[in-house]
Each structure stands twice: as C-alpha cells, then as structure tokens.
Specification:
Oligomer: single chain
Strand order of the largest sheet: 1-2-3-4-5-6-8-7
Helix content: 25-40%
Length: 227
C-alpha cells in the first residue's frame, strides 16, 4: 500500500486508523475488498449481495468508490491494509426532515468492516473521525444512519456514538438481495454531537477534505450501496 500517493490533507487519522480516499487501479485495495465482500455476513447486513467475481469488485472500486470524494477506505495503521469502508451520501429523496431542515446540510453515513476485524473497536473509531469531519469541516446540521431491524450490532454502535432513534421505514426494496426489508433510521445533530464532544474532551477536527459524495440506496442514484 503506497500511502505516499495521498496528500496529508486527504487523510483522517485516529490512533489506529487512517481514513483516505480509495485509489483507482489499486490492486491491493481491490483484492482486500474482494476478500471481505465475498462474505455474506458482511454484505447482507449492508443491503447488498456478495460479489460474484473480482472483476465485479474491480469495476465498482474504480468506477464508483475511488472517484467519490466522500468515500474513504479504512486503513489499519499497523499493516497499511484496508479493512473496511465508510462514506457520506445525500439523503434519500423521500426522507422527510423537521420543519426548516436543509437537505444540503444533512448526510447519511454508511460503513462496512471486514469480519476478521470485528469486535476490536475499529468502527467506533472510524465513525467518530467521520462525524468530526462532517460536523466540523462540512458544517453539517444532522447525520443520519440506518440499519435492518435485526442488526443489533449496528444499533449498539450507532447509539454508542451518540445517535438516537428517529423513525422506522417499512418495505424498503433491496434488489441486490431480492428482499423487502424494514429499517430503523437514527440521527445525530450537530448540537448533540458538540455537547457530547465537550463531555468526552474530543480533540480538534482533522484537516479539510473536499465534499460531495453521491452513492446509496436512493433508487434514483445508480450505485451499489457501500455499507
């Protein structure tokens, strides 16, 4: 993994992780992602089916993930290898906001982590860095997240990071799985995040990274879900 290919301003750092943009044509990234995303325990909870072959993974990596400025590879500092992905996306068009809510100031966050790295606290670390970036650098007002009703791991993670229940969506379609599923949607406002940040004495925000992610479950956005 050639981390020197990234400028320092393209990186988000935590104690054990680096979050950086995916790189077009990086075969190490493609191979690592394929090894994780052939596992249905990783992909099904995220709303998509495992890859059929590495060429499908390569096409998605190079044409969707790498060009997306708000999609980050989660890199383990100890090895320099990607272990997951985390990204912002616009809200689904059908999602209703509180009176006066500005969709441009909101994002939905999605993520996945390779199963060998579960249970080690990496995702709270990555999500914490992503939230800090969103609220401090992008000046977001609210970040949303969603999970299937039976995905208790994600629910615990999101609540641990300050999210609170917002609403339930019924009968959402997941063509990749061939299923209709219900989802809980949680939200974290900038005000709640700042209050929590003061309580936890969180360090200052990371350096700025360009904005503008476009991917997700909105059927008008033709991209494979990344989380």
């Amino acid at each position: 993994m050639n981390e020197n290919a990234c400028e320092e301003s393209d990186l988000l750092h935590t104690s054990r992780l680096i979050l950086r943009r995916w790189q077009v044509g990086n075969e190490i990234e493609i191979s690592a992602q394929y090894s994780y995303a052939t596992n249905p325990d990783v992909t099904r909870a995220s709303g998509w089916a495992p890859y059929d072959d590495i060429e499908e993974c390569r096409a998605y990596h190079d044409k969707v993930q790498a060009p997306d400025p708000e999609c980050f590879a989660i890199i383990l500092k100890q090895t320099g290898m990607p272990i997951g992905s985390i990204a912002f996306k616009p809200l689904p068009q059908a999602q209703k906001l509180p009176d006066g809510g500005d969709p441009a100031a909101c994002r939905e966050v999605g993520f996945w982590l390779g199963e060998p790295h579960w249970g080690r606290g990496f995702m709270p670390e990555a999500l914490g860095a992503m939230l800090r970036y969103g609220f401090e650098n992008l000046n977001l007002s609210t970040v949303y997240a969603r999970h299937f009703l039976d995905n208790t791991r994600s629910r615990i993670l999101l609540e641990h990071c300050g999210f609170a229940y917002d609403h339930t969506e019924y009968d959402n379609s997941f063509p990749s799985l061939g299923e209709i599923r219900d989802e809980d949607v949680l939200a974290l406002t900038a005000q709640s995040w700042r209050e929590r940040r003061k309580q936890l004495n969180v360090p200052d925000a990371p350096k700025h990274i360009g904005s503008g992610a476009y991917w997700g479950s909105d059927p008008t956005i033709v991209k494979r879900p990344q989380c």
